[in-house]
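Exam prep: given the inputs below (a chain plus adenosine-5'-diphosphate), describe the expected output before reading on.
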Amino acid sequence: MNGMRSSLRKRLVLGTWLLLLMALAPPFVYFDRTIREDMLEEARKRATETLSSTQWVLSRHAPFGSEDALEAWAVEYARHTGVRFTYIVDGKVMADSDVPAERVHLMDDHGGRPEVVAASRGGSGMEVRYSTTLRKDLVYAALRVEGIAGLPAGVIRVALPVSEVRDRIDSMETGLLWAFIFSLLASGGLGFLVTRPFLGGIESMARAAQAIGQGDYGRRIRDIPGRELRPLAHAINGMAHNIERHLAVLEEQKGRLEAVFNGMREGVMVLDAEGRITTINRALTTMFEGIVSKIGRTPLEATMKPELQRAVDDLRAKDTTEGRAIMLELSDGRAFEVNLVPFFDEAGRCVVLVFHDVSEREKLERIRRDFVANVSHELKTPLTSIKGYAETLLESPPASCEQAGAFMRTILKNANHMTKMVNSLLVLARSEHKGEKRVLAEVDAAEVLRQTLREFQPVARRKAIELVCEVEGAVTVMADRDGLGEVFRNLMDNAMKYSPEGTRVSVSARPGAGVATFCFRDEGPGIPENSKERIFERFYRIEREGDTSKEGSAGLGLAICRRIVRSHGGEIWVESPLDPATRRGAAFFITLNTPRARVGVV
Ligand code: ADP
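Solution:
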């Protein structure tokens, strides 16, 4: 900035000086030359005239008696005319108006002086020379003479100053030079003063432009130093405005993208050209604990999964824009489908990884596979038995009618078991299908419960079981009547089935705020702690020693109950044992919404 300022200023001052020099120097040199030449010319002319007039005066003079007489005349002549007069014979000075008589013979030989040499040779000679005696330029003019005023043949020499004016001109020139130097200094100072506000304006403009360049896009140039710079200032201001606007748009887009990025359910990981993690989204941080601290590391370091790193390395090594997908299973049972897509930035090939959590899908798939296997297995056992007995009856009929009857009863029992299982499966399938569009209405659950108990009266009587109904009045819930009946029947069926003879089974209903709770209690063997959740899974049965009730049990009843209860927005669970001393007894609870809490279609 300062550099620009000084160089601009320097150029300006130097330019002015050059201009001044160019304007003043040629006329100065020209006039100086001409005047000096003219002066010299005039001095020469004067010298010639003086020489001829001196010769004339001398030629009229009576012969000099002695050298001293000539000397005296010379002094007198010089005094009147102001001209130095010298008479030289064969190089030796005979008389000189400026040198006293007694010292004339001490003067050095003048025969070698150019004007004397020229005069001795051809009549006259002239030279301009600086006189050390008088300390100024003198014109020397010499003429050879013979036989005048009784003098021996010699050379007359006159010397007169080139000009008095010349000294004046010299001093004038010195004055002029000083004036010139002064004007140079003055123009320099003036240049400094004139450029100050202008350069100051440019400086503040440049400062504003610099600030804009460094990211202060809200900054504008307000002081414009001159009209000529106005378009430049407007252009810079416009540029800053545009950058500011584009930045705002970018910022907004970035915000939107970030919202999408972080709102995604899929986990996203972006790798740079070196294969290191640069960005991750929120979903990914919930998928891999502590991954936030792994930014800048490789996917292997972040997930400890070599197969993921291999897939990334493969993709980075290949020259393709096509992505690929891999399955990733974690040790905790979760499963991810990872899509790897390459993209390019200025540094090279980068990769974006999208993690879909497919644990649920995988789990459902596994359940489906297990279910099919279970169903096949459950049906195969009674079927094998039926087939075996039927074949035996055909191929080698038993001898006694009694034995044949036993065979057929076994066949019938197995067929009944299969029928029951297929029926249960149908109920389960129906309840699952129905679950999505079950129409709920106000139902008096107490009434349904009493009806169910009535159905179980004969069984209870047979097993000497005391059936206690602790339900009074009406308990209205939002339910599908058939579904509700199915649940109550299943729970009652289990209670009756697992209760030993002579025990008690009681049912109760408690209406609450928004939900009603129903309970089925028995004094049976109870449910072990680790099976309390699992008994609600399909085909799960508790193996008990000497348990005969297993026949006709498919392990589907409670699964059906849970399916139906949940589709009502309720919950089902078991508490067991009920008697800490005997560690027996089980209580199955279900909750259902009452009309105040929920009305309509689920
Ligand atoms: P199942 O059709 O075999 O009764 P459930 O799904 O109804 O199948 O029951 C699953 C398992 O839960 C049964 O094998 C049984 O051992 C156990 N269970 C169910 N109800 C009771 C109960 N009231 N008392 C003890 N065990 C029970």
